[in-house]
Amino acid sequence: MAYVFVADDFTGASDTLATLARAGLKARLFLDLPDAAEVAGLDAWGIATHARSLGRDGIVALARHIAAGLAAFAPRFLHLKICSTFDSSPETGNVALLARTLADGLGIANIAVIGGQPSLGRHAVFGTLFASGPDGAVHRIDRHPVMSGHPVTPMREADMLRHLASLGLEGLTLVARGQRGGAFPRYYDALEQSDIEAAGRDLMAAGGRCIVMGASSVAEGWLAARSVRGRVAAPPPLDDNGPVLAFVGSRSALTTTQVAAAQGFARLPVDPVAMLAGGARCAGIRDWAAERLARDENCMIFLTADHAGPFSPAELAEASAAFIAELIETSRPGGLIVAGGDSSSAIIGRLAPASLAYAGTLCPGVPVLRGRTAGGDLPMALKGGQMGGVDFFDRAGAMLRGKTEART
Fold this sequence. Notes:
The chain has helices spanning about 10-20, 35-40, 55-70, 95-105, 160-165, 195-205, 215-225, 255-260, 270-275, 280-295, 315-330, 340-350, 390-400, and strands at about 5, 25-30, 45-50, 75-80, 110-115, 120-125, 130, 140, 175, 185-190, 210-215, 245-250, 265-270, 300-305, 335-340, 355-365, 365-375, 375-385. The protein is globular. The mean pLDDT is about 90. By secondary structure, it is an alpha/beta fold. The protein has 2 domains: about 5-225, Putative sugar-binding, N-terminal domain (Rossmann fold), CATH 3.40.50.10840; about 245-400, Molybdenum Cofactor Biosythetic Enzyme, Chain A (3-Layer(aba) Sandwich). The strands form 3 sheets. An 8-stranded parallel β-sheet has the order 2-3-1-4-11-5-10-9, with helices on both faces.
């Protein structure tokens, strides 16, 4: 039985794909439900969605669609991949509603949550979530310098049992580090990597069908329970197929610092209102990028934070996706970088690659992918707002152009 996962955005989905591929599993990521022929011979596969940007009605409709398609595969262990910082709200990107609707549609009674991912600097103890920040310190999630001020789903509660209950997943039983779980639904603390491994073994020993919500630590726990510890060699460097296009939809403080530090890109700030307006305003932006790509120059378009208007993050992401898809079709860059979870989901959804495969690791939480698009293979890197070091864009540009090797 293959490992199956459903992700609430594309950046997170790509990280879980990388976790499984680095362990030696033959894995692939799809944008919608694959058919049996597409997953034949795979050890693991996943579906990347845009649930993080959806309201309640959209999440219910999406979950019912996925559950109806997954029923034929009858997964016993279904990983619901969510952000390691658990940012979600009752009205936007509600991960508890997503989990419960999937469970109902698949007839799965047991739901569990793994609360941390130590390998990514996310730690859960006494039901409280902590995360490393861009300053190098570890913060309680409701005091995190990035996530406490997230523009759409700010984290105001560090007690994950309270947080998830507010989303609709009530009655969670707290499982202390390294301990065996009791009644479902369960929430596992995880301070160290050994706690992830213990949670994986406990869930596999529980028997029955289960939906397990959490970051890529869920995959790490499953691999440990199956005694899969191999690591494949780093993939060879990518070919230099031309200049790299970067689009920055994230407006987190860390991403702003990374944009300012990017030396290997021509950079153009764009007011979100201009992106939404389209027409002549977007044509000028497109011409600017096309000119630079034509002369083999990496270029970056980044949305500014100084905007106002009656539009939703989903509307902005969709407008950005339409713009980038047209630019890629006409200018054919050699690689693509997208910063921002909503932006990544919308853009990759619009490009609609047949599938995505792992091609190396850029930094923790950000793999390099190969997308099979209508125009040919397109190497890409998708990052969330809180991922990567200050030199992220220059490192990503160099890797996508084959100038540095990927990590294992």
